[in-house]
């Protein structure tokens, strides 16, 4: 049985935003897993200096949508355009337990075209902004879950991407770090980045520029 989600979903441009450069444009995204349609014609347009939140019930397709935007999954229908560089923070930390955080900065930073010093400086700066002071040589497997997740966030932002795609990035953060995380998001927005955050924390939604609600029975535009 095809338990598809009713009408097309999505958020597109509102008034007053058209003078900014579009960084992410996803149009008409349809995705099925076998016969189950998870995304039914979803639109999402995010411009520079904007933060979009993707919300919805468990299983609504939030991570699927983000992976499609990141180019990690192909949609069955629709198209995605990304203008510029992209950083992706997966829900489950894609980090290596047998390396230190600094080694991650070198590995991911050089992959982004930074030299070792720049990668280290930028990694430590981003970590500091999340209330994480790096000291000593600690293997990632010996970090707490929350700190491992901070590393995950830092790595996604290390190359100073134009578009940041963050999938429930603050899991395991204590309250102060959670507040710091949103401060980082606002500073990325100030710097002209486009940011998309998958979130269950609805108390932040009045501070974001766009909300894409994938809850099946909603399936409608919010902004
Ligand atoms: N590779 C896959 N094969 C089959 N079904 C999948 C696959 N990946 C996800 N699904 C299903 O698609 C639906 C959407 O999954 P997705 O992870 O995108 O939801 P979500 O909104 O991010 O959920 P949550 O809030 O629980 O993280 C779920 O029912 C999930 O079980």
Automatic annotation (TrEMBL):
PROSITE patterns: ABC_TRANSPORTER_2 (PS50893). Gene3D superfamilies: P-loop containing nucleotide triphosphate hydrolases. It holds the Pfam family ABC_tran. InterPro entries: AAA+_ATPase, ABC_transporter-like_ATP-bd, P-loop_NTPase. One of its GO terms (molecular function) is ATP hydrolysis activity. Keywords: ATP-binding, Nucleotide-binding. This is ATP-binding cassette domain-containing protein.
